[in-house]
Amino acid sequence: xxxxxxxxxxxxxxxxxxxxxxxxxxxxxxxxxxxxxxxxxxxxxxxxxxxxxxxxxxxxxxxxxxxxxxxxxxxxxxxxxxxxxxxxxxxxxxxxxxxxxxxxxxxxxxxxxxxxxxxxxxxxxxxxxxxxxxxxxxxxxxxxxxxxxxxxxxxxxxxxxxxxxxxxxxxxxxxxxxxxxxxxxxxxxxxxxxxxxxxxxxxxxxxxxxxxxxxxxxxxxxxxxxxxxxxxxxxxxxxxxxxxxxxxxxxxxxxxxxxxxxxxxxxxxxxxxxxxxxxxxxxxxxxxxxxxxxxx
Length: 296
Ligand code: OGA
Ligand code: MN
Known about the structure:
By secondary structure, the chain is of the alpha+beta class. The chain has helices at 30-43, 55-63, 144-149, 153-159, 168-181, 191-196, 231-245; strands at residues 7-9, 17-20, 45-48, 77-78, 81-88, 91-92, 95-96, 117-126, 139-143, 163-166, 200-203, 205-207, 214-216, 223-226, 251-254, 261-265, 269-273, 284-291.
């Protein structure tokens, strides 16, 4: 069987690639997927523009990467599709249709899970625009492999073998307090959700389970402590690593158009949502998350 052909276009950045010429509403064959995967492993973020996907087609393409997770926070699941997490600022009947403030600090999806996520696939349905028609609400991606490589030998030695504690609830509660103070609506975590997300431990420098590259694997959203260090010293080390790793030379900034399906590698990148829009500028995105490999 011959693979479907596609073109790859590279932005002027340390990571990222646009794949042109594929219509993902039709399934891709295994050989085509292997070629896509090769680009993905090289560039850590890939996107397909101009797609029109049903939730089923989005989930079907996601399954090529592995098992699709059912998100911890089920309140933002798409009706009838528990695998689809809705990211949106739209309010209907007094209720947010999705998570309105997803990703407002640098983070990796699901790093707080015992088995972290391999990748996330975000599909854009509505994109906010300014008065001049310019797209708002970009997402930034930083290469944790390039960031690791650029660490000094001294820091590499210092962090080798260290482990970090990741926890979901700390971040959620910080956001909840902020949202409430701003008068916004956000639901409390239920005891069932809390029970699903105990502390987990991952290496500070994690070897990518599929490419073998060493990647910085601490993030500001979910890392609460470095094992064996005081809270203060751990936070200082974490923040130093993140500041280094999210410097502009390691970053690709994605400007969304409607119909983009963008996939990022959660082992090799961190991402950040830019909150430069508000209602009536609407943003609606659907996300799937694929399970990865244990880090121990
Ligand atoms: C996410 C996320 C960023 C964005 O969905 O995991 O962080 O720009 N989204 O919506
Ligand atoms: Mn995210």
